[in-house]
Amino acid sequence: MMDTRKAIEKIKKCLALSKSANEHEAAAALRQAQKLMQEYKVDDQDIEASRAGEAKAKSGVTTKPPLWENMLASVVARAFACRSIFAPGWSSRRAEWLFVGCGASPEVAQYAFVVLCRQLRAARSEYIQKTLRRCKTPTKTRRADLFCEGWVRSATALLPALAG
């Protein structure tokens, strides 16, 4: 006796086999998939939901992300056909960004976010050191945040080419 998860995996294999060039093999696989779907009360949405996955990326904060980090997560998620969700951390634990999508897109989006965030933080610190030496701390923070938002907007134009 199979459980629902194993049945869904078998249905997915049958549906993949139903795209075969051999029409008899394809028809038999499709009939088998329909039979399993009826037997285990599985519909198309259950099969699509089984393809979903998630990937986590650490945030730079514990509670509320800065606007530029939120913008970057949203842009990356949109470029790789995912959804981004911010999960605040508890006490001293850092918060996380969750990228949810189908196939390999969550992992690719997470990797792209981590790399771009690292580059952005390096550009931010360089901007603060070179340009904002004589400003007070609140002014430095505000201007650096605006710089980061502009950086994300310029990176937005390059992401679709990277995502393919």
Helices, strands, pairings?
Layout: H1 4-17, H2 23-39, H3 44-50, E1 52-58, H4 67-79, E2 83-87, E3 96-102, H5 105-131, H6 137-163
Helix pairs in contact: 1-2, 4-5, 4-6, 5-6
Describe the overall structure.
There is one protein chain. By secondary structure, the chain is mainly alpha-helical. The chain contains six helices and three strands; from the N terminus they run H-H-H-E-H-E-E-H-H. It has helices at 4-17, 23-39, 44-50, 67-79, 105-131, 137-163, and strands at residues 52-58, 83-87, 96-102. Helix 1 (4-17) runs antiparallel to helix 2 (23-39) and helix 5 (105-131) packs antiparallel against helix 6. The radius of gyration is 23 Å and the shape is elongated.
Helix proportion: 55-70%
Coarse shape: elongated
Fraction in beta strands: 5-15%
Task: Give the rounded overall mean pLDDT.
Answer: 88
By oligomeric state, this entry counts as single chain
| Cα-atom radius of gyration | 23 Å
Sketch the topology as an H/E string, one letter per element: HHHEHEEHH
Give the biggest sheet: 3 strands, antiparallel
What separation lies between the terminal Cα atoms? 42 Å
Low-confidence stretches are none
Across the major sheet, the strand order is 1-3-2
